[in-house]
Fold these 3 entries.
Entry 1:
Amino acid sequence: MTSSIRPVVFPGSSRSGTLDSALPAKPSPGHMPLPVPSLPPSPLATGGELAAHISVAPMESSGRIQDRRIVKLLGWAPGDRLTMAVIETSVVIRRREDGAFHMTTSPYVALPAPVRARCHLTAGCRVLLVPDPQQDALIVHPSTAVARMLQWLHTHLAGGDPR
């Protein structure tokens, strides 16, 4: 039995698969093309200044996250006091005078062992770093949190129920 594969040709299109050759060059008399409104750029598409500072970095066995640029951007210095709050599996780090943690002499942020354990972070894992200079904060997302966020977003974009 032989079978052949035939291209799918939609009504109003040509065999070449493009709609351009099937469209009339000018509108028919009495028919006016509808105007297409211009849309403002999506804030998700532009990302603004924040997108330029997002980083992915590996974490050492000591909890040190290897990204000096983020620390410099935030203006954090050795001895600065930090608070760390674990929300689900992400960490929100803020510079505050009453912080229980502190910046070390090297220009890196280090996550203490209890924070790493609660977020299921191990040596060598890569984390997404999202600085927020206006809030004087750094949000650290493990890859599992990033995967969950992307799954939600992709489901939402595809029109499914993102719950």
Entry 2:
Amino acid sequence: MWKILGKIAHLWPTWFYRFISNFHSKIIKFNFTKAGKRILGDNILLLETIGNKTKKLRKTPLAYVKVKEFYLVAASYSGSDKTPDWFYNLNTTSVYITIDGVRFEATYELVDDISRSDMWKHLDELYPTFKNYRKRTKRNIPLIKFSKVMV
């Protein structure tokens, strides 16, 4: 579904983009069924942060690819020139991620310039529309590596 919708998401008004993201977040647990994966797609994680301004819990579904021991995501906002709000929420408090029904605390690290092209290859293989996102925007889309907090 997102492979199709992602091609036009940059045309949506902000309120509609947030509506779709919120709807997707609410049905994310459905994603862990065969039917859910067919509708929503594989490799969707649910990122939980606290809003930088609102101080409210924010849940954001994101496409990810597992590379070695970390989960790689792009702050693409469908190729918009605006960086998504969730990116600014990363440094407010602890970050939690749910993947395949398992929730865990995570740390994050921005991908450095040296590794960017290799990391983009992983994401492009999963979701080729990322190439269009990079062409569509003037900004340098941040890439983020999430890792499980080891207790």
Entry 3:
Amino acid sequence: MRQPEKSSFRRSKVGEQCIDEGGFNLPQKKTGVQPWCPIFPELEAEMQTWEKRPGPFLLQESGKNAGKPVTTNQMWKIFDKAREAHPEPEGAVWHGLRAKAVIRLRQHGYTGQQISDMVGMSVEMIERYSRYADRKAGGQAVLRDLKERKQDKTVKQWKTVK
């Protein structure tokens, strides 16, 4: 699989050339780190509906730049329209979606290092994003354990027969 060149890489130019065995190989513009990001089943299903063609996946659909790659600013505008049309993502931001993905991976049992490798964040940032979810999961595990212990100690009353 051909690797995108770091110097010429732009997120808006993400296309088939970035797919590597079920994930995206995306060098980070800010840090140069090159994580391997899995293509989750929901995205994979969506991608199956996309037109198969060379070049970037996301192209501008209208205007003087029709057919050119979507820019970061245009992605924000598209995202804002989606938030207006659907109440669920109200107040959501890109970074929050990334944090949600980190938490989802953590809840599925992946380690901080595994998640870091997938999303390109430091393990410390993964731990920070996951802190509340980890505490909640730990508390819920304690409750489950206490309930199981209580059930084990319950003595059944026997009816006496006359």
